[in-house]
Amino acid sequence: MIQYLVILLDDTSVSFCHYVNERKERRLMPLDTLKAGILYGMKENLNIQFVYPDYELPEEYGKVIESTDHSKIKPASMAEEADVVVINGLAEAGGVTGRDGTAYVLRLTKEEMFAGRGAITSMLENAGRLNIVLTDVNTFTDDDFKKYGQALDELSEDVERMYTEGKTPQLNILTDRMMLDKMNNCGAGDTTVTLAPDGHFYVCPAFYLCADGYAVGSLDGGLDIKNAQLYRLDHAPLCRRCDAYQCRRCVWLNRKTTLEVNTPSHEQCVMAHIERNAACGLLTKIRTHGTFMPDRVEIKEIDYLDPFDVKEKW
User: Fold this and answer.
1) Distance separating alpha carbons of residues 122 and 302, to the nearest angstrom
2) How far apart are alpha carbons 106 and 86 in whole angstroms?
3) β-strands 84-88, 103-108: how paired?
4) SS3 at position 310
5) CA separation for the pair 165, 131 (Å, rounded)
6) Which residues make beta-bridge pairs with 107?
7) 2-44 pLDDT, tens per residue?
8) Could you tell me which of 159, 189, 163, 161 has the C-alpha nearest to residue 173?
9) Global pTM?
10) What's the rounded Cα separation, in Å, for the pair 103 and 97?
11) What is the rounded CA–CA span in Å between residue 120 and residue 68?
């Protein structure tokens, strides 16, 4: 059931996920479309999230936006009053001072991830929450997987230290799995849908911004998701049996790499399980310092990284 409505305010609205927004020409959502989108969200009792471009919106847009409860997703250059601040790369991260109560999305290439321990830890010390999103998942090699595991092990040391100091850092690729007991994925097409400046609905922003995307309805004609069951967890044969609960299970990446919205790529699966295993180790280490989440069961050790490799056991 759809619970969230993401509204892209402009064609150049910041990307907060794996996809790259290469559009440079501004195309602001018409004011009437914005009003109609808000009305739709209110009628359907949806949580509305506005995704901003990197320029100041006209005053009348601000008034319309403030007419309803919502969350703001903004680029780092426009971070004032943002609920979620998106940072592109380590260079941009250096100019951002984290603040408690605000979530940050740090979009990195794999090379930035492997070399970014200091910057990531610094942000984590001050941010209410930090989500790391890698923009080149589909290019990972076996050597990259090893480097990713090493990077997570190093970050685990810093997170462990913060916990011993009485802090409660939230880092999606490490701490989320410790807290979860079921899948918590992006939900595109299942719990979330996007409204674009053209007045059409899309599974997520990537399906609007990328050339091979497609609409799933419009404000005029209503929401119309074909084969909607394919976006649900219970129709994902691998994912529904998996316990890498923190996995993004990105529908756009699925389609891009396997041509199926409900089937993840080898790269996405392996990375999620490396994160899962790192969370397992982190939880064990934190518990050596005292009682920590006693109601949570241990994360079981596994001998595989891609569930497809052990599908016969299921």
Assistant:
1) 32
2) 6
3) parallel
4) helix
5) 21
6) 88, 133
7) 999 999 999 999 999 999 999 999 999 999 999 999 999 999 9
8) 159
9) 0.94
10) 12
11) 34
